[in-house]
Design goal:
Chain lengths: ~240, ~400
């Protein structure tokens, strides 16, 4: 088992906008250890979401190498990436991204359905109990509050027992009380040993993480020297 | 995701949008119902044409007066029987026939019936079989005997009894007393506008003298020696009659020659043309239905962009998304097909009331199902491909 679950080396990302190419990520180097709870912060447009998409195997870097759990991601084809997203990653979105016509339980089952798991209703029920929604299994998202929806989404992200949880502004659409609940859940999961990478621009939220990686103009401003070969535990030294 | 799982997902998609799915299906329902009906009517009309002509000899040729409205009065007469017999080597037999409406009564029943004056040769020329009694004899023709042979239907109408009891009974034709000499077995064959089953046959000479008069132009039934002699017979007859009628080369024929074979061909041709036309209509309806499916699926893909992005993030492969939407389109199409087949089968009995010949066939079912499936695949593929190829990042961001 690899100590660094995520290892990014010289990641560049360019988008072409008509004739111009825009550099979103410029030589990003960082690694995230197993069991870490990291907040990626920065102004909008700083490249933090693009980085999360690359880590989430939804996007590929223009240049540079990405290792997830020791596996080089760059060379994988579309189906293999889908498999990794399904087995190794759990996504939590700002706007929950629940399927509106499915009940809470069915929503949690979606990832498991792509694994043809027969025990998925059992797993889904257990996880909804765990996030405090055991009594609302058959409710649809429209009948629930934002906080409840995000807890369903967290249960869904946990359903495949992934190595890494990726959260994109998980409290961005929530009132402060629900936000606190969600963050409480994240801390619990962290204590249980889950690796969590969370993108946010909210300091109050970011500070609850173990480490903050600050982004500015497509580069890591601080949080990791990027020179992980020399000092991979830079953060611990703080 | 397994295929069964994906099919369930697609069915969910159809079910969750019941009304929209049903409206989308309508085009397919109507299309497949049309196919079922087309095939039923097509097979039915082919069968009825076959039945109608099954007993008619293809070597039979009819000679009749040219169409009414022709400038020259026809000179066609019973004398032409002899002309054809003498001058046409390809002809085996000739018989004249005159016909007209007459009041026929038996007991208290009076009917206006087509009376046909024929000679004894008519029986062999038209393959008549008898359920009782026999046909007119040469003697009855030469002696102008007042004897009548009845078609099956008219016999029943007039006497309302079994054929055995009818022979020997008397009936009145235009108030002249005739004896029934025989009843013809049911044929189902038509001669122009009259069916043999509705005809009353009396000796040619009797008809001329007592019932129809000598002014009626006869029709000649000619038998060619064999199938190969039909064509030469047609030209021989035309040449012989032009000569006999003293028509100058610049004058049009005052008679028409028609062979049964070409009549059968024409009828089959008509039936075929109708089938082709109906199939064309059904195809157009299905195409329009298919375009409807594509349209709705494209809207659905757009509406569900965020779902597609989410599913991709959660681990759906492109092919999982493709299949989900493709199966949905095929599902809509196949459901439409099933309902359409049901509708078609339900309408078939109604067509019988309109006296349209229909035959239910497996062929129709198979074609209808196959077509609806193909339409689903063909028109569902593009939207499904579009869904599968959408960029997951953009799809996730879509509101």
């Amino acid at each position: 088992m690899n100590e660094n679950i995520v290892q990014l080396e010289h990641i560049h990302k360019e988008f072409s906008m008509g004739k111009n190419t825009v550099q979103i990520l410029k030589d990003v180097n960082t690694s995230i250890r197993r069991g870490e709870f990291v907040a990626i912060m920065g102004a909008s447009g700083s490249g933090k979401s693009t980085l999360l998409n690359i880590i989430g195997c939804l996007d590929k870097p223009t240049e540079g190498t990405y290792f997830l759990d020791g596996q080089r991601i760059n060379d994988l084809n579309d189906d293999e990436l889908a498999r990794i997203r399904n087995r190794k990653l759990g996504f939590i979105f700002q706007s929950f991204n629940l399927l509106p016509y499915y009940t809470a339980q069915k929503n949690v089952e979606v990832s498991l359905a792509y694994q043809n798991r027969k025990d998925r209703s059992l797993i889904a029920k257990g996880l909804l109990e765990r996030v405090g929604l055991g009594h609302r299994l058959n409710h649809k998202p429209a009948e629930m509050s934002g906080g409840e929806k995000q807890r369903i989404a967290i249960a869904r992200a946990l359903s495949t027992n992934p190595d890494l949880l990726l959260a994109d502004e998980p409290t961005g659409a929530l009132d402060s009380k629900s936000g606190i609940q969600v963050m409480g859940l994240f801390k619990e999961l962290h204590q249980e040993g889950k690796t969590i990478i969370m993108v946010t621009h909210d300091w109050e939220i970011g500070e609850q993480a173990e480490r903050i990686i600050m982004f500015k103009d497509g580069r890591i401003e601080y949080g990791d020297t990027g020179n992980h070969s020399l000092s991979p535990r830079w953060n611990l030294a703080q | 995701m397994g295929i069964l799982e994906t099919i369930r997902l697609a069915l969910d998609g159809i079910w969750l949008n019941k009304v929209r799915s049903f409206l989308t299906m309508l085009g397919i329902i109507i299309g497949t119902a049309t196919i079922i009906l087309v095939v039923a009517v097509g097979v039915g009309s082919k069968q009825s044409v076959d039945n109608q002509f099954s007993q008619m000899s293809v070597t039979t040729i009819y000679v009749m007066a040219s169409n009414t409205g022709s400038p020259i009065p026809t000179k066609l007469s019973s004398k032409d029987v002899a002309v054809i017999k003498e001058n046409c080597p390809s002809v085996a037999a000739v018989a004249p026939q005159i016909s007209g409406k007459a009041a026929v009564s038996a007991g208290s029943n009076t009917e206006s019936v087509t009376v046909l004056g024929v000679t004894e040769d008519y029986q062999s020329l038209t393959n008549l079989k008898f359920s009782s009694g026999s046909f007119l004899t040469q003697e009855s023709v030469t002696t102008k005997e007042k004897i009548a042979v009845l078609g099956a239907d008219i016999a029943e109408t007039l006497f309302g009894a079994g054929p055995g009891e009818i022979v020997g009974q008397t009936l009145n034709i235009n108030n002249k007393k005739f004896t029934v000499g025989g009843v013809i077995e049911r044929k189902g064959e038509t001669l122009g506008n009259t069916s043999i089953d509705d005809g009353v046959f009396i000796p040619y000479t009797t008809a001329q003298s007592y019932i129809l008069g000598t002014t009626v132009t006869p029709r000649l039934t000619v038998q060619a020696k064999d199938l190969a002699s039909v064509k030469p017979a047609l030209s021989e007859i035309a040449a012989a009659l032009r000569e006999a009628h003293k028509l100058r080369p610049n004058m049009a024929d005052d008679f028409r020659v028609m062979d049964a074979g070409s009549k059968v061909g024409a009828a089959q041709e008509t039936a075929r043309t109708m089938s082709v036309l109906l199939i064309a209509i059904a195809t157009i309806v299905l195409l329009v239905g298919g375009i409807g499916i594509m349209n709705v699926m494209l809207v659905s893909v757009r509406e569900r962009t965020k779902e597609i992005g989410t599913r991709r993030a959660l681990g759906a492969r492109k092919k999982d998304v493709l299949r989900q939407f493709l199966f949905e389109a095929i599902g809509i199409s196949m459901f439409g097909g099933v309902l359409g087949v049901g509708l078609g089968e339900a309408v078939i009995p109604l067509l019988k009331y309109l006296e349209i010949e229909t035959v239910r066939s497996m062929q129709g079912l198979v074609i209808a199902f196959a077509f609806s499936g193909i339409v689903g695949v063909f028109f569902g593929f593009y939207p499904a491909k579009k869904a599968a190829d959408s960029n997951p990042i953009e799809a996730l961001r879509y509101e």
